[in-house]
């Protein structure tokens, strides 16, 4: 469904340009505005200047990996609440648990299924309704 998430801004962080572009294209199909970064240090610089609704990050990157990026994003009051989705080829349970402990909200394995990306975005951006 094109445009379903129109108006949402996402930051995609991955050191491999081809991988990053594939995810960017998927997100743009859903109406998201996307900014790109090639590592965690670059991502933090961008996050200090712009506001985002979602962050998608790889784990293994130079300068600052995805685990460290999650941890740093959670330390900054202005970025603390941004949902983070880790996207990685590492599907070992230890990686997933560590990502969640470091502050990730979800974890997707590469290659990413387009339908799954849509479901994750819908879940993590849905307003929370209080229980009665």
How many domain units? 1
What integer is the average pLDDT?
91
For the record, give the distance between the C-alpha atoms at the N and C termini, rounded to a whole number. Answer: 32 Å
Structural class, from secondary structure content? Answer: alpha/beta
Instruction: Extract low-pLDDT stretches.
Output: none
Strand content: 15-25%
CATH topology: Rossmann fold
The biggest beta sheet reads: 5 strands, parallel
Radius of gyration: 14 Å
Shape: globular
User: Which assembly state applies to the chains in this document?
Assistant: single chain
For the record, the CATH class is Alpha Beta
Q: What's this, in brief?
A:
The protein is built from 5 helices and 5 strands; from the N terminus they run βαβαβαβαβα. With 132 residues, it is α/β, with parallel strands linked by helices. The N and C termini lie far apart (32 Å).
């Amino acid at each position: 469904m094109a445009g379903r998430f129109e108006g949402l801004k996402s930051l995609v962080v991955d050191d491999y340009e081809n991988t990053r572009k594939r995810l960017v294209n998927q997100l743009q199909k859903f109406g998201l505005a996307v900014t790109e970064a090639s590592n965690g240090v670059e991502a933090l610089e961008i996050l200090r200047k712009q506001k985002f609704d979602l962050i998608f990050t790889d784990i293994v990157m130079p300068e600052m990996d995805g685990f460290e990026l999650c941890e740093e994003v959670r330390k900054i009051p202005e970025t603390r609440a941004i949902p983070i989705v880790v996207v990685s080829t590492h599907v070992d349970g230890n990686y997933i648990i560590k990502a969640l402990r470091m502050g990730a909200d979800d974890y997707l394995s590469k290659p990413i299924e387009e339908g799954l990306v849509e479901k994750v975005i819908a879940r993590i951006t849905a307003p929370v309704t209080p229980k009665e």
